[in-house]
Amino acid sequence: MPDKAYKNEQFLMSEEARGVRILCEYVEPEQRFRRTGVRNTVAFFGSARLRLGRGSDGRDWYAEAAQLAEKLARWTLETHTVQERFYVCTGGGPGIMEAAHVGGGRVDQGLNVGLNISLPFEPQRLNEHIDDAHAFQFHYFFMRKFWLVKLARGAVFFPGGFGTLDELFELLTLTQTHKVSRIPILLYGRSFWEGLIDFGRLVERGLISPEDVELFRYCDDADAAFELLRSELRPHPPEESIAASP
After folding, report:
1. pLDDT grade, residue 11 (50/70/90)?
2. For a Cys staple, 86 with which of 27, 76, 186, 189, CB 3.0–4.6 Å?
3. In the chain, what are the domain boundaries?
């Protein structure tokens, strides 16, 4: 007897079924987020290549990310109801992503959410500081980025490469065009970001509006970043569906 279409693995992995696989990466995470009560996150972005210890610039970005995540986790655990709690969400891999989960895990590992991605050219393991209930594995970058942004009520960008820049500019574009509600966006490490991106030149040349540079703030230490987030983080309204726009 032939397999039913939804049990036919050869079909499900075919080019023709790509739409089905994309839909699965939308519906399955939504179901799990509902079941586990994850509605609000603070998303941490940054390089997978940054490890614990001071780099050539004299900064230990790993330790600082862990410190900030720990402060956030302790604050939300002591301050918010279960429904309004903020989770520490990352791409689930090593480097800054792992650091944020190390910090969150010092308080309660159940506050960590990891949205990992499978890569064809390099293994990106899911770090060990995430419980199975909050661990996700994506194939499609755009679906992973959708969920990184969808639940985020705040975002912190540590130094990173192409992936971090891609995530930063996508979030800035979505915010600029009002496709998502405005949230606090922090660029952590002023000297790194100002040396990398000349936002002022974009304004001077009329490529972005002067008010667009107000969509984000720079911060240089975990205490300052935490104070900004604590004063501005707001949970999603209780009645709001997590699958609403974007």
Report:
1. confident
2. 76
3. 38-232
Confidence of residue 5 (pLDDT cuts 50, 70, 90): confident
CATH topology of domain 38-232: Rossmann fold (3.40.50)
Q: How far is CA 95 from CA 47, 89, 144, in A?
A: 6, 14, 18
Determine the pLDDT at residue 65: 98
Q: Which residues contact 223 (CB under 8 A, 6 or more apart)?
A: 71
Question: Which pairs from 55-59 meet CB under 8 Å and 24+ separation?
Answer: 57/191, 57/192, 59/189
- Listed in sequence order, the residues at least 6 apart from 240 whose beta carbon sits closer than 8 Å to its beta carbon are none
Using CA atoms, how far residue 181 sits from 8, 156, 173, 229, in Å, is: 40, 16, 12, 16
pTM: 0.94
